[in-house]
What does this fold into?
Amino acid sequence: MKKKSKGMKKKTDGTNISRSLKYNLTKLLIPLIILMTIAVLILAFHEMFKVERVVVEGSSHYTTDEITNYVLDSPLCRNTVFVNLIYKNKTIKDIPFVQQMDVSIVDRNTVKIHVYEKTVAGSIYNLGNYLYFDNDGIIVEVSKIKTENLPVITGLTFDHFELHEPLPVENAEVFDRILNITKLLNKNELNADIIFFDEYMNVTLFFGEARISIGTGDMAEEQFDALRRILPSLEGKKGILHMEKYSKKNNNVVFEEDVD
It folds into this structure.
């Protein structure tokens, strides 16, 4: 009877060990399975809502890549769900030349960024900086970077300036002249490098080494329409084109070439 009892005990001990191993294995596998499940869900979430396309509207000063890098500036922003949480009911400000930017989600893989730029009529170079001003002559930005296809205004004098304040020039009406000139330049697809005002408010436009004198600009519509046709013939030339008296009735112009 005792031998039989010992056999039963050995069998029972073996069963207990087996159960203990299964229990310990289960304790290890359950957390591992949970972690793997979470990892799979995170990966699926990341892939399902990954930002694959960014649409930028309204930006002429910055490229799509520049705007994208500014807005999607963290790893979290590579997911449209997090982009929505970060920028929901929030506008982006404090960016040079930008009034504000609004971010929205088009679909689960597409983000749209709408840029509202500050209105810039021109710039003035002053002590290493470009002072950018709007149609009313208010300084909207100060930067060391020159904006392409935006003329630099020269000939205006002032002794100080403040950001978001009108440029303190002697004759504030000059900004109406600048606005009219820049509108006509854009209308005729002309890119002047410099717009120069002399002490009598006569205007000279610089296109490379060619200078165009239009006087007071009273006949600016006709002058710019003619300049659009004339300018290609001045490419590579250095001198001044006199259009001060140009009009529909008087369409004679004289190009005075510089003598080295």
